[in-house]
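>> Question from a student workshop board

For tomorrow's exercise we were told to take the sequence and the ligand below, predict the bound structure, and bring the output to class. My setup keeps failing. Could a helper post the expected result so I can at least see what it should look like? The ligand is adenosine-5'-diphosphate.
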Amino acid sequence: MKIAFVASEVTPFAKTGGLADVAAALPRALHALGHEVRVFMPLYSVMTNKHYEIAAVETAQHVTLTLGQFTYEFSVFSTTLPDSTLQIFLIDCPELYSRPFLYTYDADEHRRFILLQRAALEACQRMQFSPEIIHCNDWHTALLPLMIKTSYGWDRLFQSTRSVLSIHNIGYQGQFGVHTLGDIGIGDIVTHMYSPDLASGHINWMREGIRHAHSVSTVSPTYAKEICTPGGGHGMDVSLRQRARGVVGILNGVDYDSWNPETDDTLPVHYSIKSLQGKRHCKQALLTRSELHVDMETPVIGIISRLAMQKGIDLLIDSLPQLLSTRDFALCVLGTGETQYVSFFTALANQFPDRVYFENGYDEALAHLIEAGADMFLMPSLYEPCGLNQMYSLKYGTVPIVRKTGGLADSVQLWNGQSGTGIVFDHYDVPAVLWAVNTALDLFKDNIAWQSIIRNGMAMNFSWEQQALQYVELYKQTG
Ligand code: ADP
Ligand code: GLC
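>> Workshop helper replied:
Here is what the output should look like for this input. Compare the format with yours to find the bug.
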C-alpha cells in the first residue's frame, strides 16, 4: 500500500512525547512489511544541528503558499530514518518553524500546522505520489481528511485516498477562534465544519478530524472505549459515538531496537531475562548519576514524565511526602512541564536530598538509565491513551505501578500471587496510590515473588511487528 503518514513530531528528529516514538516506529514497521510509506513532518530549527543528511526534493523547492492574508514559502527535503530506508520528508519553512520549541502559544500556531498539512499534500502532488491512505496523527494533522475531500478534492491524485486519524491524546484538540477560518480555507471547506462549534466562535480541529476521517483509531482498546464516554471524551464523545464505524483501539508497540536492555547502547552493562546481573550495575550507575545516597538493597522508584495534569502528579503531591516519611525507598524523577509540578519535585528533593533526585529537563540517556536502574516505575495517570514507559519498564525488568486507565490497563496485569506483571490500582485517589506503592514496597522484600513479577514482565512482547499488522487491517477496512 502507498501510505502518507503525517505527524508533528518524529523521533529522533523531534520529540516531546510518545507521539514521536510512534510516528517513527509504526512507519518503520509498515515499511518493513513492504508498504511504501512516506512520512511528513516540519523541519524545526531546533533539530537542524543533528547528524543526518538531507536532500532537496527538486520538484518542491521555494513553493509559495497563501494562507488567508499570509504568504509563505516552503521547501521539502528528504532524509531517511536512521538504520532504515524509510523516507522522511521535512517541510522547511523557517518563518514558521524557526522557534525555540516545537509547539508555541504564538498567534500563528494554527498556521504552523495548516502549512504542515497543505505542504504535505502539495509535496505529494509535486512528487506525483498518490497515497491510498493518508494517516493523520492528533490535532496538528486532523484537518487533512477534510482537505482531501474539499480544497484538494479536485486533484485525481487523491481520488481514491482514504484517511485515518489516530488520536494519541484527546485532551489536546487544536481549538482556534473562527477568525482563523480564512487561513485554512480554500474552496467550500467551511460548509462542512461543525456548525455548533462555528456558532460558538471556534473551530475544533480534532472534531473535524473525527467527523471527516474515513477511519478513526486510538492507541489502546481501553482508551477507545473511554473517549466515547462523557467522562473521557473531553467534549468529543458525542462526535465519536456518531461515527457509524466507531473508534478502533490498537495498542502502541515498543521499538525494541531502541528499548531493549540486551542491546541498549546507552547502558553501562547489558542484561536479559536469563541474567539480571547487569541490572544491578545499572542500578549502581543510576544511584551514582543521580546522587542518591542509599544502599543497593533500597528500592528505587523511577518516574519519567511530561509534568502535566494528565500524568497524575496531583496524587503524588498528596502521597509522596507521607510515603517518604514512613517507608524506606528512593525516588528518581525526570521530567519537564508545568510550574507547580516542577516546584513540588524541587521541594521534595530538597526535603529528602539523599533519597529523592529530580532532574527538570529532557534527557534521553537518563531516561534509558532510569528504565534500567530503577526497581519500580510509577505512572499514576489521570488518563493515559497508551503510555510507553510502562511497556519499556516491563522489558527492563522494572516493575510498573500504574493506574488502571487507557493503555496502562491494557498492558499491565496486577500481580495476584502467581501471575501478573505489576501493581495496578483503580481509583484516582490518594488511598489507592498509597496502597499501590506500599504493596510494591512490601513485595520487593519477597525476593521470590519479586523475581517472578520481573520475569513475567520481561517475557511480554509488545513489538510493533504485531501491532503494525492491525494498522494494515484497518487500512484495508478503511473504505
Ligand atoms: P506522553 O506521550 O503522554 O508524554 P508516553 O508514555 O507515551 O507519554 O511517552 C513519553 C515518551 O517521552 C517516552 O519515550 C519517554 O521516555 C519520553 N520522555 C518523557 N519525558 C521525558 C524527559 N523529560 N526526558 C526524556 N524522555 C522523556
Ligand atoms: C500521547 C499519550 C500517550 C501515548 C502517546 C503515543 O502523548 O499521552 O499515552 O502513549 O501519545 O501514542
